Amino acid sequence: MRYRLLGRTGLRVSEAFLGTMTFGEDWGWGAGEEECRAMFTAYAEAGGNVIDTANRYTEGSSERIVGALLGSDRDRFVLSTKYTLTMDGTDPNASGNHRKNLARSVEASLQRLGTDYIDLLWVHIWDPNTPIEETMRALDDLVRAGKVLYIGISDAPAWLISRAQTMAELRGWTPFAGLQLPYSLLKRDIERELLPMAANLDLSVAAWSPLAAGVLSGKFTRSGSEGPSRVDRAAVSERDLSIARTVDAVADELGVSSSQVALAWTRAHRPWIHPILGARKPAQLADNLAALDLELPDDTVARLDKASAIELGFPMDFILDTTNDFVYGPSGQRTEGRSGQY
Predict the structure, then answer these.
(1) CA 272 centroid distance within chain
(2) Using CA atoms, how far apart are residues 255 and 263, in angstroms rounded to an integer?
(3) CA nearest 264: which of 236, 304, 226?
(4) Widest Cα–Cα separation across the chain
(5) Which of 165, 180, 235, 334 could form a Cys-Cys staple with 206, CB 3.0–4.6 A?
(6) What percent of the chain stands above pLDDT 70?
């Protein structure tokens, strides 16, 4: 396992995070405690150090299981959890990104996790009803109090994140260090705005559902591999199945699993993307961990890119169009631009 710095911080985080949405059987499809222990041990032995959970995962069981697994080794790991989602649907203030819910959620998470601080706290999703100023100041207060060390945000628009970062910089508040976003060969829309923003603001990205809820594992495209799933086979589009078949073909050519190809692709262009490995069984996690040693050939990456290509849409398609000779003139073709701008 290799490590990278989280955003603009000095925190060392492993190239893949362990997702624990499957830890606990409260939702009817998760893993029991012994399976959770086996997966945690395998991840730790591989060198992984980021454990990602959330207050609402399996109705709090995930945090309790994670806390028990960390035990006396808690300080060796980067403990990551989230707030925003309600734990009491009858209380209008038991959800959202306002100060009251933040304070209550963090205290409850600390109790379930059995610790006195959280390494990385994520805003779980944008709450349009709470001003971002309130959220950023409240998060900064928790950092100053020592209950949280770093902060990130999940599932929010690029304009909001950019505004929050600018505000934090100008006011001396703690900025976000990373983003948590859905990213896979089936879901590349964050390439339009969010990934270019992350590159320019030095934000790490934790990619959730890199296997598209198992569709890219061969579950629906390989004979004899379909099993229990949160995804209805009838709801999977022909486009998605076509991409999954391309992944299967590449995997067969390379002698690896479909899951390994799909996971390796998420990091092929941007090493600062950290796939979140979420498995139900130790064998699945072991297969996923093997993807970290897989480097896809350039022509294979191009083949997967083409099979899953999306339109960037306006304004990027317009800006990147060859008609920009009209903007810069012939000399523009002889000007070496900044790398990594898009």
Answers:
(1) 11
(2) 15
(3) 304
(4) 65
(5) 180
(6) 95
Phi, psi dihedral angles at 131 (to 5 degrees): -55, 140
Q: Where are the beta strands (DSSP E) in the chain?
A: 3-5, 12-14, 17-19, 50-52, 78-83, 118-123, 148-154, 176-182, 204-208, 273-277
Which residues in the chain come in under a pLDDT of 70? 224-230, 322-324, 338-342
User: Six-digit token pair at 301?
Assistant: 């990456």
User: Which CATH number do you get for residue 77?
Assistant: 3.20.20.100
Nearest-Å Rg of the Cα atoms of the chain is 21
Residue pair 174/118 in contact (Cβ under 8 Å)? The answer is no
In a domain, 259, yes or no: yes
Considering the domain boundaries, does residue 230 fall inside one? yes
| Residue range 237-275, pLDDT digits in tens | 999 999 999 999 999 999 999 999 999 999 999 999 999
Give the count of beta carbons closer than 10 Å to the beta carbon of residue 18. 28
Q: Choosing from 43, 57, 83, 183, which is the catalytic residue? A: 57
Reply yes or no on whether 57 is catalytic: yes
